[in-house]
Write a structure and sequence with these properties.
Elements lengths: L11 E5 L22 H17 L3 E5 L15 E4 L2 E4 L10 H10 L5 E3 L11 E4 L6 E6 L5 H11 L3 E5 L12 E3 L5 E3 L6 H10 L4 E2 L2 H5 L6 E2 L3 E5 L3 H9 L3 E5 L2 H4 L10 E3 L2
Parallel strand pairs: 1-2, 4-5, 7-8, 10-11, 13-14
Antiparallel strand pairs: 1-15, 3-4, 6-7, 9-10, 12-13
Bound molecules: arginine.
Length: about 280
């Protein structure tokens, strides 16, 4: 069967250079404080990612990296924006708490966003995803490790969209964005084993055409990708999953982000999508 031609759409993203990236605390199973980090290499790999997004025709805004906030490169965690409403983040761990203010300042400095301050713990697009054309426009939201379920309700109220709560059960996949990804306006890919049995049934009901990843794909952080609807930017360790995406009609674009994996993140973690 010949897959349907996929359409890209121009996007607006927010990123932050890993100038101060190190692994000096461990808040997920991927972080090893005894293994040295090559910060210069991380910056180089990150910059190639930034350039890739620009070359694909997208707009990339930048946050100024701050000393003492080594995880700030994982810009996806700083908020969740739908139709110009930016629901702010409230980080689970104190080591990252101050990142929220930098994101808030960005949204408040720009007219196209209305910022909603959170009262509940949530890590932005780390645990929230949005599909404008699925079921009239729904958000998916993870809980179990970082984001509190109460934040899902708070996001639904802030954004005026249904928010579907999904329970994450495997600590290696501690954020939704390492277990599930949005491929285009209506479809997703996911690794079932990262979710509770009940949440697997919820996902299968809502997304019968989802691309299914296996454990090896998920461990390579294949699902931590950024798609514009056609071009799917994915890390170079994920060649097996890239082949599955090609078979489904998407166009994988591979980037090496190995040094950032030491922090427990890949492509998507580094990129917040802004939906002005
Ligand atoms: N070290 C960071 C943390 O554990 C990594 C965050 C990865 N970001 C993401 N969107 N999954 O919080």
């Amino acid at each position: 069967m010949i897959p349907t031609a996929r359409q890209s759409r121009p996007r607006t993203y927010l990123m932050c250079a890993p100038e101060h990236f190190v692994v000096e605390y461990a808040i997920n199973p991927w972080m090893d404080t005894t293994a040295p980090v090559d910060t210069a290499l991380a910056v180089k790999q990150w910059d190639a990612l930034r350039q890739t997004m620009v070359d694909l025709g997208h707009t990339v805004h930048l946050l100024t990296p701050q000393a003492g906030l080594p995880d700030m490169v994982f810009a996806a965690n700083g908020g969740f924006v739908v139709d110009g409403v930016a629901y702010g983040a409230k980080f689970r761990y104190p080591q990252r708490a101050d990142e929220a203010a930098a994101h808030r300042a960005f949204y408040e400095s720009r007219d196209e966003y209305a910022f909603v301050a959170p009262t509940q713990t949530n890590e932005g697009e780390g645990d929230f995803a949005y599909l404008p054309d699925a079921h009239g426009g729904i958000a998916l939201a993870g809980y179990g490790f970082r984001t509190e379920p109460a934040a899902h309700a708070e996001a639904a109220e802030a954004l005026g969209r249904p928010v579907i709560s999904l329970k994450l059960v495997d600590p290696r996949f501690y954020h939704l964005d390492v277990a599930l990804t949005v491929l285009d306006d209506e479809n997703i890919a996911y690794y079932p084993g990262a979710f509770s049995d009940a949440s697997q049934r919820v996902i299968a009901q809502l997304f019968p055409n989802a691309v299914v990843a296996d454990e090896a794909d998920a461990l390579a952080f294949a699902l931590n990708l950024v798609s514009d609807g056609r071009n799917v930017v994915i890390n170079t360790e994920s060649t097996a999953f890239a082949a599955k995406l090609t078979a489904a009609g998407y166009h994988p674009v591979l980037v090496d982000l190995a040094e950032l994996k030491r922090g427990g993140g890949s492509v998507k973690c580094c990129i917040a999508e802004l939906r002005p």
